[in-house]
Design a protein that fits this description.
Strand order of the largest sheet: 1-2
Order of helices and strands: HHEEHEEHH
CATH architecture: Up-down Bundle
Structural class: mainly alpha
Radius of gyration: 17 Å
Oligomer: single chain
Shape: elongated
């Protein structure tokens, strides 16, 4: 596999990043329900988790958008865990392709929410940026995983 990493190493890295993502999004969900006036990640009016949390974009139908992050990272963690345990495919697709699909979805949602933070809310949530960085890391690793799977099938 590219970069000298074995498939299991890449899957383990995806699982670790996804676990951190669950924790990050879980904490953001907790903060949303806590609704304190301020939080430790409010550095100023621009770098403010509270400003993002209090915006209309922080929830849909009363459900915090961070719950989507918990679910997405949870699915990625489950997929990576299944692949590590030897599950080759789920339904019509290989497990690696499912990981790539959810990596793309996570990065797309993270990019969209980051654009909303910058251009609409005009405030950045540091914990949201961390979640987006985790999304991008998982997406990159998923691409390596799928490319490595194709390469090994072509060689075999």
């Amino acid at each position: 596999m590219a970069g000298g990493f074995a498939r299991g190493d890449v899957l383990l890295l995806i699982a670790v990043l996804a676990a951190f993502g669950v924790a990050d999004a879980g904490y953001l969900t907790y903060q949303w329900y806590e609704a304190a006036d301020s939080t430790w990640c409010d550095l100023d009016s621009y770098w403010s988790c509270s400003a993002v949390r209090e915006s209309p974009w922080a929830s849909v139908a009363g459900i915090p958008t961070a719950v989507v992050g918990v679910a997405g990272f949870g699915i990625l963690l489950a997929l990576a865990g299944a692949a590590l345990r030897g599950t080759a495919g789920i339904g019509p697709w290989p497990t690696d392709r499912w990981i790539l699909l959810f990596g793309i979805l996570g990065a797309a949602v993270g990019a969209g929410l980051t654009l909303v933070e910058v251009f609409v809310i005009q405030a950045i949530c540091i914990l949201c940026v961390i979640g987006f960085a985790l999304d991008l890391g998982i997406l990159g690793l998923a691409a390596v995983l799928v490319r490595g799977s194709r390469t090994s099938r072509a060689a075999g």
